[in-house]
UniProtKB/TrEMBL annotation:
Signal peptide: none annotated. One of its GO terms (molecular function) is histidinol-phosphate transaminase activity. The lineage of its organism: Eukaryota, Viridiplantae, Streptophyta, Embryophyta, Tracheophyta. This is histidinol-phosphate transaminase. It comes from Daucus carota subsp. sativus. Pathway: Amino-acid biosynthesis; L-histidine biosynthesis; L-histidine from 5-phospho-alpha-D-ribose 1-diphosphate: step 7/9. Its cofactor is pyridoxal 5'-phosphate.
Amino acid sequence: MGVIDICKGSTCLIKPQIKLTFGHSDRPNCCSFERSQKSSWVSCMASTVPLNDVKEGQKQHLTGDSFIRPHLRKLSPYQSILPFEVLSTRLGRKPEDIIKLDANENPYGPPPEVFEALGAMKFPYIYPDPESRRLRAALAEDSGLEDKYILVGCGADELIDLIMRCVLEPGDKIVDCPPTFTMYEFDAAVNGALVIKVPRKSDFSLDVEMIAKVVEQEKPKCIFLTSPNNPDGSVIHDDALLKILHLPILVVLDEAYIEFSGMDSRMQWVKNHENLIILRTFSKRAALAGLRVGYGAFPLSIIEYLWRAKQPYNVSVAAEVSACAALSNPTYLETVKVALLQERERLFNLLEKVPFLNPYPSHSNFILCEVTGGKDAKKLKEDLSKMGVMIRHYNNKELSGYVRVSVGKPEQTDVLMNCLNTMS
Ligand SMILES: Cc1ncc(COP(=O)(O)O)c(C=O)c1O
């Protein structure tokens, strides 16, 4: 099986040098690395009974879920946000009256050219271009990287899953560096992979030493890195990235928020690093989250397999025309970005003055805050939502005392601050 044959029969036993412990009880195939030197045996991936082992007489008792792949039967669904209309009904407020600062969306919306292009769409009844040629040509111009290195997806989310489907055998391992975007862990679980967690340091920087150790000892197939990282907004500098790139591991660098960081994208780096993939999205920079357009830069030796494995019509006609139209107005994209960066600074300064919040400096369009002064982060989120202000709270243990606030328009910041001030 895969790179490391760690599974014997139906139970899989790993004997690591570094102790592996289960991360979340609801994510049975996740382990996290601790600095303990004690080695221990960890059992992971549940035992299964293949359907054809079921005796004749028992077959009539089969229920539908017995057809589902065993590892998926234990999967907890991804915790996504509520649809805007549902939220609006629940809160008893019009969508326009909700201050939505919980999903890092871009509140300015896309440039007017997008609405015009959608209205002028001539052939919505014809399947889209499976190679998204127009959009890839526009992205090549936008990024300076030739289109042969670029593949477009139904959001960066689709590309994360597609990469895993192309790279991972069930039982293979990936490295995840929490706290970070939880889709890596989720997609790994869907793909039957084992997640090795190398937690970030207290300043949210990567523990590069530990990553190197884990790569040497556990031989994971790939590592997912995020710069700027969601939820804290920290960036990965060249020295750390280069050290990781020198390891024998596929590095997927997610740059969903790169436009807000003041740093250049590393898309060009895929020409010189056979083990690097860069992911980007239109959701944040161009406010197209609802239309689902992401893209990636890949080494040529990898991209050909993604072309073979991807769904042929993964990017809709509406998504492609919208993304092309957004790129046709770089001035608008730049203006919106500058507005969000200015507002990030103002929001940070205001949050710093709230007695029960400790905000972290961010290179992205959101700010992570530790909730202090004996206040409960979940209750804070719930109280704000009753006032029509949505922020993000985390159910996982590591971040249960934190909230994340997306950067919005100045007037949205004002409403948020008024609400927070009533709680002091
Ligand atoms: C780090 C990161 N990567 C990817 C995505 C998803 O991007 P898309 O909307 O293109 O699927 C998000 C969404 O919030 C994110 O935070």
